[in-house]
Amino acid sequence: MNEGRGAWTGNLARVLSVVFHPLFVPLYGLLIIYSSPTLLSFIPFEMKRIIFILVSANNVILPLSVAAILYSRGAISTFNARDRNERVLLLTFALMMYTVTAVLLMKTPVPNLFKAYFVSIAVVTLVTLVITAFYRLSLHAAGIGGLLSLVAFMILLYNISSAWQLIIVLLLGGAVMSARIYLDDHKPSEVWSGLFIGAGVMSAALYLLLK
């Protein structure tokens, strides 16, 4: 019985780790912005679609394709990039693509929050890349921290009631962080440091860009 529960818990932890992989976090951030009770939720559907396609292509499909090529050639051992050099390699490419997305959005007539959000993601990626050179923090937790900061910032900036979004991100974030520890991919200190760094850098970047 205990073995069955352990297997079920392990499978759930792995599913959470995949579904909330850092690569997918920008898309979840977009969905949060789209669904928030602000004027941003009423922007034309075509604009929403273009932004979604841009982010999906630049920050999900291309990085996954590059990771698959590197994996097939033995440059990385897993898609989770447990080795420090592998992490630096993948984070460097991710930083390049986030920068491309941010630059394209800066040249596009979209609301400032979208521009600030992706510039902030690039900044968070840069900071985590630098830290990764000497410390292995949880990138999953950093992504969750960024989402928490986005929701909190929107509540303060637009004076809206989005407690349900904050609660959902908190609950899912707690589950993902617990999953990373349960799978022995990270120590608790690495998870918490990732959360606080992701939240802190994202908050500072959004504040500076939108003040």
Structure description:
This protein has 211 residues and is mostly helical. The protein has one domain (2-210). 78% of the residues lie in helices and 0% in strands. The protein contains eight helices and no strands. The longest helix is centred in the first third of the chain and has 28 residues, at 45-72. It is globular, with a radius of gyration of 17 Å.
How would you summarize what this structure contains?
By secondary structure, this protein is mostly helical. It has 8 helices and no strands.
Write the layout of secondary structure elements.
Blueprint: H1 2-19, H2 25-35, H3 45-72, H4 84-106, H5 112-132, H6 139-158, H7 163-182, H8 188-210
Helix pairs in contact: 1-7, 2-3, 2-5, 2-6, 3-4, 4-5, 5-6, 5-8, 6-7, 6-8
